Each structure stands twice: as structure tokens, then as C-alpha cells.
């Protein structure tokens, strides 16, 4: 689930207004906060797993040199995200409370107290990084076909010169 935190964090940097939500049922929100608290795991490990993707983001945002982008991530991006991490947890809890009922949230919370749940939490940084890497590889493989099809569609509609 930490990939969700990573994606949400990245999205918040790009389009914060997209995350305005309606208030959730108070009972569901309370249960969701408990789930999110268990899911957050070790903040240090989470932010360490986010460093490389954030370096790529900073490079795309205008600091192309990897060493300099890494310095920006370490000195600015990660500290700022860490300072505001509880806001992300609140947004995440709100989303969980809107998507799941209190009974399901209590069951999920109980799962995280089991050996399998604790093992999943421990493996999450590694799994999140593997998923981010997998998505990047997948998109790189799709890019040529996607670009060709987008160009062909634009041409078919007369949208190109």
C-alpha cells in the first residue's frame, strides 16, 4: 500500500486541488485512521524508498544533473514531505473511509496485527520500489506503440498539420 502513498505524494506535488474530498462517515474515518496508522510503517524507510523516484521528478522539473537533483531531494523535497506527511495520512484515511465501511476497516486493521500482516508491512518498501520500477519498465515498453497510435489518431482526426 505504500506505493499508494508514493503515488499520492507525487500527485500532490503536481495537482493538489485534485484531492478535495467530501467528509466521510465519522465511524469509518476513525477506523480508517487506525488502518492508515498501521500501514504507515517506518517513515524513514518509506522516505528512503521515495528518494530515487523523487530525484527523477526533480530532474524532469528542471535540475537535470543527477547529483544536484539528489541534493535537492535530500535537502528540500524529502524534509518538506516529511513535515507534511501527517496531512497525507489524513487524506489517505479519508479515502479509505469513503471506500470501505467500518467493519471492513476493522478487519483490515486486525489483519495488520497478524504475522502475515506484519510481514506485508515489513516488505512494503521493497514491494513499492519493485512496483514503481515495474511501472516504469512497462511504460517504456508501451511508449513507442502509444506514441505511434496517438499520432495516427491525431492524423485521422485531422488534428495535425
Could you walk me through the main structural features you see in this protein, from its secondary elements to its overall organization?
The protein is an all-alpha fold and 161 residues long. It has one domain. Helix content is 82%, strand content 0%. The protein is built from seven helices and no strands. The chain has helices at 2-14, 26-40, 43-60, 66-83, 85-99, 102-112, 115-156. Helix 2 (26-40) packs across helix 5 and helix 3 runs parallel beside helix 7. The chain is extended and about 55 Å long.
Produce a short descriptive summary.
With 161 residues, the chain is mainly α. The chain contains seven helices and no strands.
Keywords:
single chain; 161 residues; mainly alpha; 7 helices; 82% helix; extended; disordered N terminus; DUF2059 domain-containing protein; DUF2059
**What does the average pLDDT come to?**
85
Radius of gyration: 19 Å
Query: Low-confidence spans: pLDDT under 50, at least 5 residues?
Result: 1-8
Question: With helices defined by DSSP (H or I, 4 residues minimum), what is the helix count?
Answer: 7
Give the percentage of residues in beta strands.
Answer: under 5%
How many E-type strands? 0
Helix % is: over 70%
What is the ordering of alpha helices and beta strands? HHHHHHH
Which word captures the global form? Answer: extended
Report the span from N to C terminus.
Answer: 45 Å
Number of domains: 1
How would you sum up the major sheet? none
Amino acid at each position: 500500500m505504500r506505493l499508494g502513498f508514493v503515488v499520492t505524494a507525487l500527485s500532490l506535488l503536481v495537482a493538489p486541488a485534485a484531492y478535495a474530498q467530501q467528509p466521510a462517515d465519522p465511524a469509518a474515518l476513525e477506523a480508517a485512521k487506525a488502518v492508515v496508522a498501521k500501514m504507515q510503517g517506518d517513515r524513514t524507510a518509506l522516505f528512503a524508498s521515495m528518494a530515487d523516484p523523487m530525484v527523477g521528478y526533480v530532474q524532469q522539473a528542471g535540475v537535470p544533473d543527477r547529483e544536484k537533483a539528489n541534493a535537492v531531494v535530500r535537502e528540500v523535497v524529502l524534509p518538506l514531505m516529511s513535515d507534511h506527511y501527517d496531512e497525507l495520512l489524513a487524506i489517505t484515511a479519508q479515502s479509505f473511509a469513503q471506500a470501505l465501511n467500518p467493519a471492513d476497516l476493522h478487519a483490515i486493521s486486525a489483519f495488520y496485527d497478524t504475522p502475515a500482516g506484519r510481514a506485508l508491512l515489513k516488505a512494503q518498501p521493497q514491494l513499492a520500489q519493485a512496483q514503481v520500477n515495474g511501472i516504469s519498465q512497462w511504460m517504456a515498453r508501451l511508449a513507442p506503440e502509444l506514441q505511434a497510435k496517438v499520432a495516427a489518431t491525431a492524423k485521422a482526426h485531422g488534428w495535425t498539420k
